[in-house]
Write a structure and sequence with these properties.
- 2 copies of one chain form a homodimer.
- With 187 residues, chain A is of the alpha+beta class.
- Chain A folds into 2 domains: 1-35, Ubiquitin Ligase Nedd4, Chain: W (Single Sheet); 38-178, Alpha-Beta Complex (Nucleoside Triphosphate Pyrophosphohydrolase).
- In chain A, 16% of the residues lie in helices and 34% in strands.
- Chain A contains 2 helices and 11 strands.
- Chain A has helices at 78-90, 149-164, and strands at residues 12-14, 23-25, 32-33, 38-47, 50-56, 65-66, 69-71, 94-105, 110-119, 130-136, 175-178.
- In chain A, the strands form 2 sheets. In chain A, strands 4, 5, 6, 7, 8, 9, 10 and 11 form an 8-stranded mixed beta sheet that branches. In chain A, strands 1-2-3 form a 3-stranded antiparallel beta sheet, with no helix packed on it.
- The longest helix of chain A has 16 residues, at 149-164.
- The two termini of chain A are 36 Å apart.
- The interface between A and B is large, with 43 and 43 residues.
- The complex binds zinc ion (2 copies).
- Chains A, B: InterPro entries: NUDIX_hydrolase-like_dom_sf, NUDIX_hydrolase_dom, Nudix_N.
- Chains A, B: Pfam families: NUDIX, Zn_ribbon_Nudix.
- Chains A, B: GO terms for molecular function: catalytic activity.
Amino acid sequence: MSFCLKCGHATEKAIPAGDSHYREVCPNCGFIHYENPKIICGALALWKDKVLLCRRAIEPRYGLWTLPAGFMELQETMEQGAARETWEEAEGKVAIDQLYCSYNIPRIGQVYMLFKGQLEEGAFGAGEESLECALFDEADIPWDSLAFPSIYRTLKHYYHDRKTYDFAKDQVPFHLETISGDDTVIE
Amino acid sequence: MSFCLKCGHATEKAIPAGDSHYREVCPNCGFIHYENPKIICGALALWKDKVLLCRRAIEPRYGLWTLPAGFMELQETMEQGAARETWEEAEGKVAIDQLYCSYNIPRIGQVYMLFKGQLEEGAFGAGEESLECALFDEADIPWDSLAFPSIYRTLKHYYHDRKTYDFAKDQVPFHLETISGDDTVIE
Ligand SMILES: [Zn+2]
Ligand SMILES: [Zn+2]
């Protein structure tokens, strides 16, 4: 059971005229409630080839490692969202270079937009949603303790691309992929 | 005045614990209503160097020309959204090549994701939301009658990039920009 945001009346599932999808529609005031995918913005924040990771202090995936990332807010750009999350979760300032990895996750209605950037002065702390944050070399990445497949894939891409392309000449590819199936499985 | 989706009680504006933004919060059941940016997916659908445009049969911008594009739905990928919109608005089947232009429009809480693709067999019609659709050569693009700045910019990028890069070798750049100010102004 669901209620109308505009008038509080109980809504009904219906396909509005000219539409192709079921929506929650209000039979009292006619308001149509659209539900759309959400954008998650985040940063691969680098400092001298080290990657900034955060250990989650919240569910889901409490205790596992992630890139700083979270839901994009109204009135910000994706780049601002990625920088804000880096500040909130890791108390680091990131200068965004470029969009690096994007993931469709249709099963849960999410799109990840992960930006490559430089962690200013290599400085960071740990925000309220993090147990701890740290800069990792490739050899130390906790591959078995990463929170999400999007994070695993982004780190794999980064270490592959760094050996394959000339990052100094900005020859960094952009990756767009779809993550399907059970998101608890790191593929 | 706004009401709770979950229980129908009137909501109140408040900053939830651990949050940094005001949300509509329900004092009865505690449900927090997040509002986030929406993704608009669309296609630059090409057929022999011609671009498929649609003349809008709906507001806003009734009568003006646009690329097929619309709100991304749950349970689809961005590429599927772009192809679905091309079918719905122009009755064309597009084979997506790559993400080509992305625009933050923070003033209205939208992110455009426009994909370059090939219009299969050059076939199209006109969907319910289009007065007409047509394939345009560069010389015939209705620059003064385009519906949105995102469309204007994408077409400008395309004609510039086509002369600058080797599209046959997939050397197509990706553009990420922010559109600010009044979106009725084509910048
Ligand atoms: Zn209502
Ligand atoms: Zn409630």
